[in-house]
Amino acid sequence: MHLLKHFYADVRQHREIAPIFAAHIEDWPSHLETIADFWSGITGGPARYAGGMPFKHVPLKLEERHFEAWLGLWARHCRAHLGATEAEELIAVAENIGRRLRQFVAVAGP
After folding, report:
1. Is residue 58 within 8 Å of residue 48, measured between CB atoms?
2. Which of 72, 77, 92, 108 could tie 7 with a disulfide, CB 3.0–4.6 Å?
3. What is the distance between the alpha carbons of residues 55 and 36, in angstroms, rounded to a whole number?
4. What averages of pLDDT result for each successive group of 10 residues across the chain (110 residues)?
5. What is the Cα–Cα distance from 95 to 74, expressed in whole angstroms?
6. Nearest by Cα to 69 from 10, 1, 3
7. How far apart are CA 88 and CA 18, in angstroms?
8. DSSP tag of 26
9. What whole-number distance in Å separates Cα of residue 89 and Cα of residue 79?
10. Alpha carbon 26 to its chain's center
11. Residue 43's domain is classified under what CATH number?
């Protein structure tokens, strides 16, 4: 959760992606818990997330610049808050999710 709190503090101030989050997230503590549940399942912990993540991103009209901003911040925070091996593993997982999400949004979007 430490990583997520610091990461999303920067997300909320980022010129490219902060407006998207501000328009859709009203309860940040709840959102962070949901995101922590999502990452828990992905990283081998308890699978507590069942929210249909890809579908939630379709109406956001995400562009490549949004993915690049999010992934860039993620990589920076992983490297700052985690050991080298764990950081690179989480960066690779996020990049894989980003690739799949880009494809999903392109196909399912308007």
Report:
1. no
2. 77
3. 18
4. 93 96 94 93 89 85 94 97 96 96 82
5. 10
6. 10
7. 25
8. S
9. 10
10. 17
11. 1.10.490.10
The 10s digit of each residue's pLDDT in 82-108 is 999 999 999 999 999 999 999 988 887
Question: What tokens appear for 84 in the block?
Answer: 């080298």
- C-beta neighbour count of 92 within 10 angstroms: 12
For residues 78 and 3, is the Cβ–Cβ distance under 8 A? Answer: yes
Q: How far is CA 91 from the centre of its chain?
A: 11
Q: Which domain holds residue 48?
A: 2-108
**Total count of domains within the chain:** 1
Measure the CA–CA gap between 95 and 60, rounded to whole angstroms: 19
**Token pair of 48 as six digits:** 């507590």
Residue corresponding to tokens 């997230």: 25
